[in-house]
Write a structure and sequence with these properties.
The complex is a heterodimer. By secondary structure, chain A is mostly helical. Chain A contains five helices and no strands. Chain A has one domain: Four Helix Bundle (Hemerythrin (Met), subunit A) (Up-down Bundle), CATH 1.20.120. The model of chain A has no long low-confidence stretch (mean pLDDT 94). The chains are: A mainly alpha, B alpha/beta.
Chain lengths: 106, 233
């Protein structure tokens, strides 16, 4: 089951430093849509190697939101893309959409 | 002072490592780079003690970066991939390997590991190789045994050095004295206090008892102190 994103890790490393936590969230909010867009574009153009690079950057954010299952899916798709496969693409999209919705709430 | 740089193409990762570095007042982040290629001349020209290095980067990856250095400093790898771990230890300069997302406790362990291996790092060997320290009191240099110091306390422009036998007041800064003490035994636990960790009697909540003095520990340094002690939980 793909769990919902959470802020546990960010809260832990911020140690009540709210401005630092906000800074990290703002970076994610800025970078995530760009990385997602670039990933979708690369998949559409069948630039699978580039799409794999996009996932490499996205998966750190996925892990930071406590989505361990989502991280494994990302890793799986990252490896598949290097072999021009996209079997885990639908599952990965679920992960991205969950994060996208979560980012709208925080 | 350990001079370090952070190399990672991920802004988020750089911010987190920088934040962790700020927990240790003897770590100074002198620069950060999003591109390993740009960091090569900097590391070759500057006296850098430690590099936090991402492996997976465009243009030049972490391992290629190391191979392009004249004299690699100590390296702590930071990466999302565990699969590189085996390659990592083929390089003598690599001290540890941190998997993202990095936790503070794991980061501190890596620093501790680097300190244990730091004999070849110049800025650390700058700390005394002898067991004595000469302090300037009224234009006289008085010798004290470092092992006998149990507490140093900041008092405005002065510091109080407390030893087993006598207390001294010296006109200097906490930073200056910290640079003269071995990091293995001494720790700045609070803005105004450096303690000899070998002299601790007990620790309770956010304070430590040394001799008859109760010394406050700042929240950030509490975890650093605990990492250094042989704790039985």
């Amino acid at each position: 089951m793909i769990v919902s994103p959470n802020l546990n890790y960010l809260e832990e490393i911020s140690e009540n430093d709210i401005s630092f936590q906000r800074k990290l969230i703002d970076i994610i909010k800025e970078e995530f849509p760009k990385e997602k867009k670039s990933f979708l574009k690369n998949v559409e153009l069948k630039k699978f190697n580039d799409a794999s690079e996009n996932i490499h950057k996205l998966k750190h954010k996925i892990h930071m939101f406590g989505m361990n299952e989502g991280y494994l899916i990302a890793q799986q798709l990252e490896n598949e893309l290097r072999e021009n496969k996209i079997n885990s693409y639908p599952q990965f999209m679920v992960v991205l959409i969950r994060i996208e919705n979560f980012l709208k709430q925080i | 002072m350990i001079k370090c740089i952070i190399i990672d193409d991920d802004t988020l990762a750089r911010s987190i490592v920088r934040k962790f570095c700020s927990k240790l007042d003897y770590l100074s982040v002198v620069s950060e780079f999003s591109n390993a290629l740009e960091a090569i001349p900097f590391v070759n020209e500057e006296q850098i003690d430690l590099v936090f290095l991402d492996i997976h980067m465009p243009e030049l990856n972490g391992f290629e970066f190391i191979e392009n250095l004249d004299n690699p400093p100590k390296i702590i790898l930071t990466t999302s991939d565990k699969k590189f771990a085996l390659n990592a230890f083929e390089y003598g300069c690599i001290v540890d390997y941190l998997v993202k997302p990095i936790k503070l406790s794991r980061f501190l362990k890596a620093i501790q590991k680097m300190e244990l291996e730091a004999i070849s790092i110049p800025s650390i060997t700058d700390t005394p190789t002898t067991n004595e320290l000469y302090i300037n009191i009224d234009r006289r240099f008085i010798k004290i045994k470092i092992s006998e110091i149990y507490l140093i306390q900041a008092k405005g422009d002065y510091i109080d050095i407390k030893t087993e036998n006598k207390d001294y007041t010296v006109h200097t800064t906490m930073k200056n004295i910290a640079n003269k003490l071995p990091t293995s035994n001494f720790l700045k636990v609070h803005r105004s206090y450096i303690i000899n960790t070998k002299k601790i009697i007990d620790i309770e909540d956010n304070s430590v008892l040394i001799k008859k003095e109760v010394i406050p520990i700042s929240r950030s340094q509490r975890s650093v102190l605990f990492e250094r002690l042989n704790l039985l939980n």
